[in-house]
Amino acid sequence: MTFELPKLDYEYDSLEPHIDKQTMITHHTKHHQAYTDKFNAALKAYPEFYEKRAEEIIANIANVPKDVRTAVRNNGGGYINHALFWHILGTGTKLSGDLKVAIERDLGSVENFKEAFENAAATQFGSGWAWLVVDSEGKLSVTKTSNQDSPLTDGLTPILCLDVWEHAYYLKYQNKRPDYIKAFWNVVNWDNVAELYENATQE
Ligand code: MN
Question: How many whole angstroms from 108 Cα to the centroid of ligand 1?
Fold first, then answer.
Protein backbone atom coordinates (compact mmCIF):
# COMPACT_ATOMS: atom_id res chain seq x y z
CA MET A 1 0.00 0.00 0.00
CA THR A 2 1.42 3.35 -1.03
CA PHE A 3 0.64 6.58 0.80
CA GLU A 4 -2.66 8.26 -0.03
CA LEU A 5 -3.79 11.86 0.01
CA PRO A 6 -5.84 12.27 3.20
CA LYS A 7 -9.38 13.59 2.87
CA LEU A 8 -10.42 16.81 4.58
CA ASP A 9 -12.94 16.70 7.45
CA TYR A 10 -14.59 19.84 6.07
CA GLU A 11 -15.42 21.50 2.77
CA TYR A 12 -13.00 23.56 0.69
CA ASP A 13 -15.02 26.70 1.46
CA SER A 14 -15.35 26.00 5.22
CA LEU A 15 -12.42 28.24 6.14
CA GLU A 16 -13.74 31.28 4.22
CA PRO A 17 -13.10 34.16 4.44
CA HIS A 18 -9.85 33.49 6.32
CA ILE A 19 -8.50 30.88 3.93
CA ASP A 20 -10.26 31.01 0.57
CA LYS A 21 -11.81 28.11 -1.30
CA GLN A 22 -9.59 28.34 -4.39
CA THR A 23 -6.43 28.27 -2.29
CA MET A 24 -7.74 25.22 -0.39
CA ILE A 25 -8.59 23.37 -3.62
CA THR A 26 -5.21 24.03 -5.22
CA HIS A 27 -3.30 23.44 -1.99
CA HIS A 28 -4.95 20.08 -1.32
CA THR A 29 -5.55 18.62 -4.79
CA LYS A 30 -2.40 19.94 -6.49
CA HIS A 31 0.33 20.70 -3.93
CA HIS A 32 -0.43 18.03 -1.34
CA GLN A 33 -1.20 15.51 -4.09
CA ALA A 34 2.18 16.26 -5.69
CA TYR A 35 4.03 15.70 -2.40
CA THR A 36 2.13 12.44 -1.97
CA ASP A 37 2.98 11.22 -5.47
CA LYS A 38 6.64 12.19 -5.22
CA PHE A 39 6.94 10.62 -1.75
CA ASN A 40 5.61 7.34 -3.16
CA ALA A 41 7.84 7.60 -6.22
CA ALA A 42 10.93 8.19 -4.07
CA LEU A 43 10.27 4.96 -2.15
CA LYS A 44 9.53 2.84 -5.22
CA ALA A 45 12.83 0.97 -4.98
CA TYR A 46 12.35 0.45 -1.23
CA PRO A 47 8.72 -0.71 -0.90
CA GLU A 48 9.26 -1.93 2.68
CA PHE A 49 8.88 1.74 3.66
CA TYR A 50 5.27 1.74 2.43
CA GLU A 51 4.48 -0.45 5.45
CA LYS A 52 5.64 2.19 7.93
CA ARG A 53 3.85 5.26 9.20
CA ALA A 54 4.98 8.30 7.23
CA GLU A 55 5.66 10.17 10.51
CA GLU A 56 7.95 7.33 11.61
CA ILE A 57 9.92 7.53 8.35
CA ILE A 58 10.47 11.28 8.78
CA ALA A 59 11.33 10.95 12.49
CA ASN A 60 14.03 8.42 11.50
CA ILE A 61 15.19 9.96 8.24
CA ALA A 62 18.73 8.62 8.71
CA ASN A 63 17.31 5.11 8.15
CA VAL A 64 16.16 6.04 4.64
CA PRO A 65 18.61 4.93 1.91
CA LYS A 66 20.92 7.77 1.00
CA ASP A 67 20.03 7.92 -2.69
CA VAL A 68 16.41 8.84 -1.91
CA ARG A 69 16.84 10.54 1.47
CA THR A 70 16.53 14.14 0.22
CA ALA A 71 13.48 13.30 -1.89
CA VAL A 72 11.86 11.58 1.10
CA ARG A 73 12.76 14.42 3.46
CA ASN A 74 11.19 17.00 1.12
CA ASN A 75 8.18 15.08 -0.18
CA GLY A 76 7.50 12.85 2.82
CA GLY A 77 7.83 16.00 4.91
CA GLY A 78 5.35 17.76 2.65
CA TYR A 79 3.05 14.76 2.92
CA ILE A 80 2.89 14.68 6.73
CA ASN A 81 3.09 18.45 7.30
CA HIS A 82 0.03 19.11 5.15
CA ALA A 83 -1.87 16.20 6.73
CA LEU A 84 -1.31 17.81 10.14
CA PHE A 85 -2.20 21.26 8.81
CA TRP A 86 -5.60 20.09 7.47
CA HIS A 87 -6.26 18.29 10.74
CA ILE A 88 -5.72 21.32 12.97
CA LEU A 89 -7.82 23.60 10.74
CA GLY A 90 -11.60 23.78 10.64
CA THR A 91 -14.34 25.71 12.28
CA GLY A 92 -12.46 27.68 14.90
CA THR A 93 -12.92 26.39 18.45
CA LYS A 94 -11.79 27.73 21.81
CA LEU A 95 -8.46 26.92 23.45
CA SER A 96 -9.20 25.47 26.89
CA GLY A 97 -8.39 22.66 29.32
CA ASP A 98 -5.00 21.00 29.87
CA LEU A 99 -3.45 22.44 26.71
CA LYS A 100 -4.28 26.00 27.74
CA VAL A 101 -2.77 25.35 31.18
CA ALA A 102 0.37 23.88 29.57
CA ILE A 103 0.74 26.87 27.21
CA GLU A 104 0.50 29.24 30.18
CA ARG A 105 3.02 27.11 32.11
CA ASP A 106 5.61 26.75 29.33
CA LEU A 107 5.12 29.91 27.26
CA GLY A 108 4.02 32.44 29.87
CA SER A 109 0.53 33.18 28.60
CA VAL A 110 -1.70 32.54 25.61
CA GLU A 111 -0.87 36.05 24.36
CA ASN A 112 2.88 35.39 24.63
CA PHE A 113 2.47 32.08 22.83
CA LYS A 114 0.51 33.67 19.97
CA GLU A 115 3.07 36.43 19.66
CA ALA A 116 5.96 33.92 19.53
CA PHE A 117 4.11 31.77 16.99
CA GLU A 118 3.24 34.76 14.79
CA ASN A 119 6.83 35.91 14.99
CA ALA A 120 8.14 32.49 13.95
CA ALA A 121 5.71 32.44 11.01
CA ALA A 122 6.53 35.99 9.94
CA THR A 123 10.32 35.64 10.21
CA GLN A 124 10.69 32.27 8.49
CA PHE A 125 12.77 33.45 5.53
CA GLY A 126 11.37 32.03 2.32
CA SER A 127 9.30 28.84 2.43
CA GLY A 128 8.64 26.90 5.60
CA TRP A 129 6.44 26.35 8.62
CA ALA A 130 5.77 27.68 12.13
CA TRP A 131 5.12 25.09 14.84
CA LEU A 132 3.93 24.46 18.35
CA VAL A 133 5.81 21.34 19.48
CA VAL A 134 6.02 19.03 22.48
CA ASP A 135 9.38 17.64 23.61
CA SER A 136 10.05 14.27 25.26
CA GLU A 137 9.48 15.82 28.70
CA GLY A 138 6.04 17.09 27.66
CA LYS A 139 7.22 20.70 27.47
CA LEU A 140 5.79 22.99 24.79
CA SER A 141 7.77 25.37 22.61
CA VAL A 142 7.43 27.39 19.41
CA THR A 143 9.75 26.76 16.49
CA LYS A 144 10.03 27.16 12.73
CA THR A 145 11.50 25.06 9.91
CA SER A 146 12.55 25.65 6.32
CA ASN A 147 11.04 24.01 3.27
CA GLN A 148 9.20 20.82 4.30
CA ASP A 149 11.40 19.91 7.25
CA SER A 150 9.48 18.46 10.19
CA PRO A 151 10.21 18.92 13.92
CA LEU A 152 9.81 15.12 14.14
CA THR A 153 13.32 14.82 12.67
CA ASP A 154 14.56 16.73 15.76
CA GLY A 155 12.68 14.47 18.16
CA LEU A 156 9.85 16.97 18.72
CA THR A 157 6.14 16.24 18.25
CA PRO A 158 4.27 18.95 16.34
CA ILE A 159 0.70 19.66 17.49
CA LEU A 160 -0.03 22.93 15.65
CA CYS A 161 1.42 24.25 12.42
CA LEU A 162 1.08 27.04 9.92
CA ASP A 163 2.21 26.72 6.31
CA VAL A 164 3.98 29.93 5.27
CA TRP A 165 4.90 28.86 1.74
CA GLU A 166 3.53 31.46 -0.67
CA HIS A 167 1.27 28.81 -2.23
CA ALA A 168 -0.61 28.76 1.11
CA TYR A 169 -1.71 32.41 0.99
CA TYR A 170 -0.63 34.27 -2.13
CA LEU A 171 -3.95 34.14 -4.04
CA LYS A 172 -5.80 35.98 -1.27
CA TYR A 173 -3.09 37.80 0.65
CA GLN A 174 -0.34 38.38 -1.96
CA ASN A 175 2.69 39.79 -0.10
CA LYS A 176 0.77 40.34 3.15
CA ARG A 177 1.92 37.28 5.07
CA PRO A 178 1.20 38.94 8.46
CA ASP A 179 -2.51 39.29 7.56
CA TYR A 180 -2.68 35.59 6.70
CA ILE A 181 -0.98 34.72 10.00
CA LYS A 182 -3.50 36.80 11.98
CA ALA A 183 -6.43 35.26 10.08
CA PHE A 184 -5.17 31.74 10.86
CA TRP A 185 -6.28 31.99 14.52
CA ASN A 186 -9.93 32.15 13.38
CA VAL A 187 -9.77 28.68 11.83
CA VAL A 188 -7.79 26.65 14.37
CA ASN A 189 -9.56 23.53 15.61
CA TRP A 190 -8.20 23.61 19.17
CA ASP A 191 -10.07 20.42 20.05
CA ASN A 192 -7.87 18.51 17.60
CA VAL A 193 -4.72 20.29 18.81
CA ALA A 194 -5.63 19.40 22.41
CA GLU A 195 -6.06 15.76 21.40
CA LEU A 196 -2.63 15.74 19.75
CA TYR A 197 -1.16 17.27 22.93
CA GLU A 198 -2.80 14.58 25.03
CA ASN A 199 -1.45 11.81 22.77
CA ALA A 200 2.04 13.32 22.77
CA THR A 201 2.19 13.52 26.56
CA GLN A 202 0.75 10.05 27.17
CA GLU A 203 3.42 8.19 25.19
MN1 MN B 1 1.65 23.94 1.49
Answer: 30
Range of the domain at 51: 21-87
Dist. CA 100 → ligand 1 center (Å): 27
Residue 10 pLDDT exceeds 80: yes
Ligand 1 midpoint to CA 140 (Å):
24
* Domain final residue, candidates 67, 87, 107: 87
pLDDT cut 70: percent of the chain above it: 100
- Mark whether 182 and 121 lie in a shared domain: yes
Distance 196 CA to ligand 1 centre (A): 20
Q: What is the 3-state secondary structure (H, E, C) of 41-101?
A: HHCCCCHHHHHCCHHHHHHCHHHCCHHHHHHHHHHHHHHHHHHHHHHHECCCCCCCHHHHH
| pLDDT, tens digit, 9 for 90 and up, residues 150-185 | 999 999 999 999 999 999 999 999 999 999 999 999
pLDDT tens track for 117-131: 999 999 999 999 999
